[in-house]
């Protein structure tokens, strides 16, 4: 009953959002961002730590600005998901979406080989899959199921509306293999924390753990990797979709032909887009949860030496 009540409440809110002009929604998002960032201070400590980890010299004013803008873009993303099915269609998408590097992106999107499309918690990443599906290029996304089955079904219905099919995070290996063998498009959020046993690299100047499988798809599966982004532009429900880099197995430099190097490469590419507009990155996201085992051991050894 609790899950159903939550779902009905969310549906009620979405219904209200859908009858509001998107410009009014944007103003509401400004208010909600101010409320959550300044008055409630939700996850303020995590956000502050993440920002200072990347910008150690950031002033309080800068931190407050990035925090408020992040919440604004996050709330706006929710409103845009509610509006997109009614406002963005195959006949008018050009009014809402500007595709940078469209020649290079199209080349790989329609390639006979499978494609690994990597993005991060930045801008409105949900709209990238929506738009490519709208253009007749369906994709498959690995995503964790929400605890609320009703909300999970609702979000997946949005994603699958134009052909963005969802693969459950647990037990998806056989399905992923079929996608790659059929030359499909696999979209992955590359900034997910992979635990202490992941591939440790440098992300925005801090150690971060990544899933090794992402690089292995390219290195062993003949699947080009395209690092892309979808960010807000000057108006609500207007986006820029672009590509910061492509790692093609047929043209790959020798320096990128191992898991760690390729993982570092795509994180650098994601970081390029994020640092260009850091206010659209999800600083609330727990990207840097733990430290590498070797760093933890070294710290422990130092403490033991000091105590001796």
Automatic annotation (TrEMBL):
Annotated InterPro entries: LipA_acyltrans (IPR004960)
Instruction: List GO BP terms, alphabetically.
Output: glycolipid biosynthetic process
Q: What are the UniProt keywords, alphabetically?
A: Acyltransferase, Cell inner membrane, Cell membrane, Membrane, Transferase
Gene Ontology terms for molecular function: acyltransferase activity
Cellular compartments annotated: Cell inner membrane
- GO cellular-component terms in the record? plasma membrane
This protein's source sits in the domain of life called Bacteria
Q: What is this protein called?
A: Lipid A biosynthesis lauroyl acyltransferase
């Amino acid at each position: 009953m609790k899950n159903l009540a939550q779902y009905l409440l969310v549906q009620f809110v979405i219904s209200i959002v859908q009858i509001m002009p998107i410009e009014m929604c944007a103003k509401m998002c400004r208010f909600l961002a101010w409320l959550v960032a300044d008055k409630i201070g939700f996850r303020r400590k995590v956000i502050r730590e993440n920002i200072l980890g990347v910008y150690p010299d950031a002033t309080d004013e800068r931190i407050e600005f990035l925090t408020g803008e992040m919440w604004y873009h996050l709330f706006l993303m929710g409103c845009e998901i509610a509006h997109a099915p009614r406002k963005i269609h195959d006949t008018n998408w050009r009014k809402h979406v500007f595709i940078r590097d469209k020649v290079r992106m199209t080349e790989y999107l329609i390639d006979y080989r499978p494609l690994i499309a990597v993005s991060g918690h930045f801008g409105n990443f949900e709209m990238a899959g929506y738009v490519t599906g709208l253009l007749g290029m369906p994709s498959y996304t690995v995503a964790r199921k929400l605890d609320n089955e009703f909300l999970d079904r609702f979000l997946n219905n949005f994603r699958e509306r134009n052909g963005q099919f969802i693969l459950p995070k647990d037990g998806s290996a056989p399905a992923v293999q079929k996608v790659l063998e059929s030359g499909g498009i696999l979209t992955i959020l590359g900034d997910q924390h992979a635990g202490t046993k992941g591939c440790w690299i440098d992300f925005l100047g801090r150690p971060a753990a990544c899933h090794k499988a992402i690089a292995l798809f390219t290195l062993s599966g003949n699947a080009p990797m395209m690092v892309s982004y979808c960010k807000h532009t000057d108006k609500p429900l207007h986006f820029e979709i672009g590509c910061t880099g492509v790692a093609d197995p047929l043209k790959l430099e020798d320096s990128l032909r191992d898991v760690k190097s390729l993982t570092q490469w795509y994180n650098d590419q994601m970081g390029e887009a994020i640092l260009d507009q850091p206010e659209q990155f999800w600083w609330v996201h727990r990207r840097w949860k733990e430290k590498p085992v070797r760093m933890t051991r070294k710290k422990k050894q130092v403490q033991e030496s000091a105590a001796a």
